Amino acid sequence: MSTTGRRAHHQVTFAVLATGVIAFALLQSLVTPVLPTLEAALGTNQSDVTWVLTAYLLSASISTPVLGRLGDMRGKKRMFVLALSALALGCLIAALATDLTVMIIARVVQGIGGGVLPLAFGIIRDEFPREKVAGAVGAISALIAVGAGVGLVVAGPIVDALSYHWLFWLPLIVLVLAALAAQFLVPESPVRTAGSINWPAALLLSAWLVALLLALSQAPSWGWGSASVLGLLAAAVVLAVLWVVVESRSAQPLIDMRMMRVRAVWATNLVALLFGVAMYAAFAFLPQFLQTPSAAGYGFGSTVTASGLLMLPQTIASFLLGLVSGTLAQRIGSKLVLVIGTLVSAAGYLVFALAHDSQTEVLIGSTVMGAGFGLAFAAMSNLIVAAVEPSQTGVASGMNANIRTIGGSIGAAVMASVVTAGAGPTGVPPESGYTHGFLMLTGALVLAALAALLIPAVRRDPQTHAEPDVELRHPEAALVAGGTLVGDEPE
Q1: What is the pLDDT of residues 91-147, one digit of tens each?
Q2: Confidence (pTM)
Q3: What is the pLDDT of residues 192-210, one digit of tens each?
Q4: 364 burial class (0-12, 13-18, 19+ CB within 10 angstroms)?
Q5: By C-alpha distance, which of 60, 64, 21 is closest to 397?
Q6: Which single residue of 75, 205, 236, 299 has CA 20 to 30 Å from 371?
């Protein structure tokens, strides 16, 4: 129950959840366009300053499934407040940081806030009226892309008007208010999963994720064929296999391997991986492309602020399409919405690859890309929530977000290698590097659309056209979700 003795209205709960998710998403991208500023302010170099991003991704990758599981066991509201508090503490440390080491520590603490995503999805499923769940999950999911886009837009003006310290002071204020609101306004969810954290599995999960993301993030500077990168990748494979074995044999797994084998879950996670490859790479390299001086034969020599404004249509389109995604899914199904959203995003990337000589073309590509993001993010989350029982919502949705983060690390690392191939003595990438890079990302999204076709469809209620919570067309899915098997007739 809430501290007021009655359960808060679900719209109040949604407002608090949305605030926390937006703050987390902002902190994912806020530092990306101003890395050169941080490099100078912290007295470091281009290679080392990338750890400001890498440390955040590593921490979020490890913390997201753990907090999701803890939320299912100990209470989602309690863990949501903890995640917001970690984000706030990390912002405080980052705002006071004057050297790289302290900034990296701050970003690790902020990464713990990655748990806000699975916890928000779980609270929505537990607290909202059934007919409101799909729309709320869709809106929260769209806010992830919107928040990340807003971070790219507002970073420049904040640094220009104030300083890089305010990239963290402003979110800190919002996070403190959100944590207080969550404590006093959000009811504690009644759904609990018995058991305890499988710490050996958590350590193995952390180990293989660290090895994988460290190798991928450093491969452009160390070299893809270097002994360090190859050794880390081999270690990641071995540790991942051990993790799967430990989880499979555990009576209380951190990640239920039986759940992960459900076609609706693994196919949606594959889409998330490929989507992450494309999205994070674009967020990292589009500002760099726009800020390249036109003397290089491409780019517009934009300031940090101007390059952010050129990406504003992406943010607006993500938000608007995310709002209607839930309603659209009730009519045509989340699977079809996901396929459409992924192909729309691919079209936006194709525009960037083939037509980027004018700012109008960039605006068109950004708008189309954002529209696809809004549709696909919402649909992915709805498919995951519908595929598992309520007690596993946090872990399943957390792993989906986690896999998207891993995909982002892969995409950013590979994109860096493609873009910088053939760079001259000045270090400025050739235009062909960006063209090939965005074509590669277009291909990743086309593969994501094909992967989405593997997701089993769900039979909708003929009266409401809504998708049921857990009924899936796959025996394992029905077994795990405790749902009722339905036939394989076309929708």
Answers
A1: 999 999 988 899 999 999 998 888 888 888 888 888 788 777 767 776 777 777 777
A2: 0.76
A3: 776 677 788 888 988 888 8
A4: middle
A5: 64
A6: 299
